[in-house]
Each structure stands twice: as structure tokens, then as C-alpha cells.
User: Fold this.
Amino acid sequence: MAGASYSITPDPRSSVGSYAVQDGGEDDANQAAGMIEIRQVNAGNYTVTQLEAPAGYGQDRAPRMVQVKGDGAATATFSNAVVASAASPQPKSVIYTAKFECGTISGSEGPLRPGHYDTDIGILNKQDFEVRLTWNAVLKDGRGTNSILKAMEPQTSTGIVCDDIRKLADGEKFAEGFIIITVPLDSSLQGALAGGSTVVGRQSMDMLDVQVFYTANALLELPHEVLVDKIVFTVTGDSSGKVPEAMIGRTLDVTVRSGYEISDPEDKVRGALAEQYGMSVEEAGDITIKVDSISVGVGTMIDDHAVSLSRIPPQAAS
Assistant:
């Protein structure tokens, strides 16, 4: 073998110790690949051992015994077999791991602000063949749920929402954890993917497009319709002088949240004026007001909303 090296014991020239020679080295009198010739050696018995074989070949570990007589010659032959390279293990499945937050936090029980949280995990089968997957939820305390099997037709999409997750979490008010989506692979599927799939790392295959859409509403209660009163009024007098003179005697209006309790519309107007013009309770009480009309309408609470979208990368699993 070209490039192989050997040890000869004892040294064929000094008869002491060992002698190392390599194919194509300085002491090789035969420059043909795989042939080593050593000249001017002493007569005697020698042990020839292969020290190293070329890359890609197994070492012939059996030593050869040779005898050199007088001016004669001796030959030792070694054989090296090709070593099959270790094939990279094929992944058995592709997994996607998505974080979820589902439900309402009304107090200080967690790191999240009080509010309502939703998670929508969108899954797209971008392949031109059916893909079967399983998914399960791993809740915050480490409890894993049973897996759900789903078959997706080519070029179709599906989703996992909080209602699906809460069913697996026994209807908990607030649930958080991870969704694990697993796509099993077999040899035929890997062959189908060989043409155009994206290879992630060294082994995994990007089977699906998985994206997670998060929403959070930081209000203590969700936005909903409320009744409001529109009060049309006239300020006829203000002893404090804090209400602008141009507004005295003019027709004005204010919209306030309506309730089911009995209330005085003039007090509601005085409260609105006191807040706007920095008046004390006594100053607001001295304002004279004439209520012209009251109408009831429907309003919507302000929505303190946040949204986020992220794409989940695939990982190979053996």
C-alpha cells in the first residue's frame, strides 16, 4: 500500500534495536507505490510489522518472519482491506418545540402581568405528500399529556390553540408549558426529501413550517362593551373662577360610564370638571350646573394589547 510504514526487528544493518521504513521514504530503494526495497542488509532472521496503513484501509497486524541468507533476498507481503466509513446515523423523527401561555392571570401569582394570554400554533405542510405528526403538551410542572395523532394532506395547514391545550390541562384557569410536535421519518420519506428539503444542522429535515402567534391583553378584565351616559349640560356659575369664562353659559357635553346604581348626573359633571381643571371638592360643589339632556350609548373599553410571532426551527431526533 502506498504510504504504509513498517518496523523491522532487529535493525537489518546494525542488528541492534528496530528499524522503521516508509513506502516512498529516503531508505526505500524502490519508488514504485506500495513497494519497499532495502539494500545492504545483514544476513539473519527478521520480524516485519506494519505500523500504519494509509487512510481508508485497515492495518494488517500480523507480523511476518523473514530470513536473509548471505547475498540472498527475502520478501514479506502485507494485505490491507478497505474500511467502510461509518455512515452518519439517519434521524428517526423531526421535532418542533413551542412555548405556550394560555389563560387569565388576575393576581400576582406569576412573573407575567395580570391579563389574558393566548397562543396560536400554526402548522403548514409544505411538502407535496401527506405528513403524519403527533403532538402533546408538557405542562409547567413537568406533566406530559397523551399524544394526539394528526394526518396533514399536502399543502394544507392546521393549528393548535389554547382551547385545545386547556382540554389536555384539565381545564386549568392558566396553563403554560411546551407543545412538542413530532414527525416520524422512515426510509421512503427520507428518499422523498432528498431532492429539496432544507437540512438543519447535519441530520434534521425541515418537514413543516411551524409558527407561533402570541397575544397578551394586560387589562384586569377583557375588553367588552359598556353602557355610557352622554350628559348635555350648561355651566351657569363658577365661584372658583377655574372654569374658563368662555365656557360659562355654553352648551357642553361629557361622556361617563353608566352604572346600575342611582346617581346624580350633576355630581358626575362636577367630578369631570374638577378632574379637568384641578378643582377641590369644595370648589366643584359651588359650581352651578343645568343638565339639558341625558342619552345612553354603548362604548368599548380600551384594549391594552400586545402580539408576537416567531418561527420554530426543526430539530432531528434519533
User: Anything to note?
Assistant: The chain has three domains: 5-68, 93-221+307-317, 225-300.
